[in-house]
Design brief:
Blueprint: H1 2-8, H2 40-62, H3 67-77, H4 79-86, H5 93-112
Amino acid sequence: TRTALLNMVTVKQEPFSGKPSANSGDWSGGKGILPARETLGPLFLMSTTPAFSIVFFHVCANMDGNFLAFASLCLKDGLFSTIYSVWPTPWDASVWKMILSFLVFELILQKYMPGKEFKATVTPTGN
């Protein structure tokens, strides 16, 4: 029965050509269903993630995790003015001390505590 199960799940492997084929079974192997997914999707994620992260932190830290209260605040004052009011200032000295201390800490770790080089198997798409 084990051989019968193995025969049922055997996948035909194509030789590696450097490009994913459309019928490879890989989720990224085709053109995709969304137009311009190589440009608009990443741009959307890069532009919305900082705002979402700051709003999420503000709601959890200052509003006891009450997203409905944040939504009502947005309805009352407007979305952009609410986000502007919770957005942290980049000129705060304590913030820069935290960032610079984290930077120094990471530099020390990378310089004096390097890990072993790790090589993984190559994926079918060449990554």
